[in-house]
Model the fold of this input.
Amino acid sequence: MAAPRTRLRPTPRRYPSTRDEDEIARFEADAGDWWRSDGAFAALHRLNPVRIAFIRDAVLAHFGRSGRGASSKYARGDSPARPLKGLDVLDVGCGGGIVCEPLARLGARVTGIDAGADNVRAAALHARASRLDITYRTAAPEDLIRDKARFDVVLNMEVIEHVAEPGAFVETCAALVRPGGLMVLATLNRTLKSLLLGKIAAEYVLGWIPPGTHDWSKFVRPDELAGMLANAGCVAIRRAGVAFDPWRGEWRLADDLGVNYMMAAAKERKRDPARRRGPARPVQLSRRGRPGRGKTSMPSSSRRRVSSGLASP
Done:
C-alpha cells in the first residue's frame, strides 16, 4: 500500500524590520510641532501642496479616474469633489498626518502608520479635531503584512532615506500593495547638488529643517530606487523633480531630479514565479537624474518596463 502523500505548505515569507531607532527618536522629539506652520516641520508644510498634487494626479491617471479643478486646488483639500473615494490608501511613516488629512478630504479611506507613538498620537488628535475619519496605528510595514492588510495605494513620503535597509523596506511596502495598485515615493537624490542644497543649505544655512535631520549617504538615486521597485515587482511609471521657486516662495514640480524627487510605480498584477530574487541593484534610466553606471543584474524584460515607464514625465 502506497504511503499517503504529505502536502507541504509553503513557509510564509519573513519581512525583516527596517526600523532605525535613532531616526525614530529624532522625529518623536519634535512630535508636538507637526501642525505648527512655523515649527520643526514647516518645510514639509510648504512642500505638502506639490506632494499632494503629484499623488492625486498619479492615482487618478493610474486608476483611470477624473477630477474637477486644478491640482493645486485639490492639494489644499478645499474642493467638494472626492475623486479618491473608494480607494484604500496607506501612508507609511505618516508622522503627524500632514499627508493623510488632505487625502482623506479627497475621499480616500486612509490609514497612517508610524513607528513613533508620539507622532501617531499627534496625528490622531489633529484628525479628531478636524473631524476626519483616519485610521492611525503605531506600527511598521511588516506588522501590517502579518495582519494580511492590503491597499490600493501605498505612500512613502520622505521615509526611505531614514530606514536601515532601503531595499528591504521597499520590498516590504510593495507587499502591502494590491496587484495592479500603486506605490508613490518621495526622497532626495544622492548628488553633489543635494549635498549642498538638501543637506548643508537646508539644515545649516537657511534653517529650513533641524540640523542632523538627514544623512546624505542615505539619499537614494532615481536609478537605485527604480531598481529596488523592480526587484519588488513594481514598475516605475511616473517621476518628477521638486524645486523651490525663490521668487514665488513655493515648491513646484520640475524636470530636474538633482535634489528632491518623487516616483510612482505600478504593482505587477502577477509576479513571475521564476524571477530571481536578489538585492536591489541600480537600473539605467533614460532621463536626467544621475544615471547609474555599470551593468545591472535585472532581467531584460524588467529593464524594458522601467525604461518605457520613465520615458515620459
Observations:
- The first strand starts at residue 88 and ends at 92.
- The longest helix spans residues 42-62.
